[in-house]
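Researcher: I'd like a candidate sequence for this fold, 355 residues long. If you have to choose between options at a position, lean toward the conservative one.
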């Protein structure tokens, strides 16, 4: 694991960009600029957290990693997008307060004409507690907030939504910077999700002083959750003067989940498996200035996942990002980039014959 973030998905885009992603859009509502090179620079903050619900009226327990602010550059052409981000220097100096987090964080947003898909993979080690102070827990240590270097979690998932009104509504305009929404328009969304979440620790997840507040999970040292289900939602973009825009998208879903809790048992661990229910919500928002040549905007994306089961009232986690983007579109395509996208197109046809 590295103390930085890199996201690199061009080949994955080639595989997932199938014929179902393409479609004719109404030129009076959407200006497609995917045939032109879009260059971007951005600053971003990726985040996640996990929350254990307490019994009765006690305060919930929330863990967070020490998140970082990243700087990145990227480019898009023919609906293929490549972004590379690295840790921004001088602004991530708070380990004395929150402790150190080592992580690998990869998130991809694949926006076609008819489909909007999110993929994520995160591995984080080292969490601090934001819901309670060291005095509340009776802990000592060099950091200002309660900190656990032993806490390791990784999550992965995919959620995908079909855009019903894809002829007049563009996800790419607000979130991928290779189109322009010319008139206000919205669309119903429907699809599904599949996620997994695993957490491990050297001792119980619940601090000993809070044992009475979490009687059902006081001995739990690790857990795994896997769930899937359908989703439905709605997205809308308001446009002012064909340049200024604000987009909001929300979706909710629910389904079944398999849940494995690992409790302390003698000198080892004993695993118990449950079938339960889970829910999934997704929220996206973007706002800014978007023309044929320029894009300046802020983008927010969050996936929120929760579970309910017999052995534990509720467990909730989320993953997301906030990004500020400055993008410039070129009038002519560089020859090297054009050759690269043609190579990706050929690779896509090799993987998806008959396209």
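Model: Candidate sequence:
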């Amino acid at each position: 694991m590295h103390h930085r973030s890199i996201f690199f998905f061009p080949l994955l885009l080639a595989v997932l960009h199938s014929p179902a992603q393409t479609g004719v859009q109404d030129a009076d509502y959407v200006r497609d600029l995917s045939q032109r090179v879009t260059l971007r620079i951005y600053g971003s903050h990726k985040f996640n957290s996990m929350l254990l619900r307490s019994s009765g009226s006690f305060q919930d327990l929330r863990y967070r990693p020490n998140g970082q602010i990243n700087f990145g550059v990227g480019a898009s052409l023919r609906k293929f997008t490549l972004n590379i981000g690295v840790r921004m220097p001088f602004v991530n100096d708070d380990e004395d307060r929150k402790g150190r987090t080592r992580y690998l964080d990869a998130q991809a947003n694949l926006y076609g004409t008819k489909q909007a898909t999110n993929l994520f993979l995160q591995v984080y080690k080292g969490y601090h507690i934001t819901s309670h102070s060291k005095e509340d827990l009776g802990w000592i240590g060099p950091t200002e907030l309660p900190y656990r270097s032993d806490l390791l979690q990784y999550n992965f998932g995919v959620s995908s939504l079909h855009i019903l009104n894809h002829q007049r509504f563009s996800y790419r305009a607000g979130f991928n910077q290779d189109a322009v929404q010319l008139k206000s328009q919205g669309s119903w969304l429907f699809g599904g999700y599949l996620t997994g979440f695993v957490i491990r620790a050297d001792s119980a997840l619940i601090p000993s002083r809070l044992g009475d507040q979490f009687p059902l999970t006081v001995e739990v040292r690790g857990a795994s959750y896997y769930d899937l289900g359908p989703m439905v939602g709605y997205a809308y973009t308001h446009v002012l003067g064909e340049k200024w825009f604000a987009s909001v998208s929300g979706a909710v879903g629910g389904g079944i989940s398999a849940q494995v809790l690992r409790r302390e048992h003698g000198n080892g661990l004993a695993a118990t498996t449950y079938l339960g229910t889970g829910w999934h919500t997704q929220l996206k928002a973007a706002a800014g200035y978007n023309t044929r040549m320029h894009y300046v905007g802020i983008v927010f994306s969050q996936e929120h996942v929760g579970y309910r089961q017999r052995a534990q009232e509720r467990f909730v986690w989320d993953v997301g990002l906030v990004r500020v983007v400055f993008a410039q579109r070129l009038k002519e395509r560089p020859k090297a980039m054009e050759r690269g996208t043609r190579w990706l197109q050929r690779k896509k046809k090799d993987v998806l014959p008959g396209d």
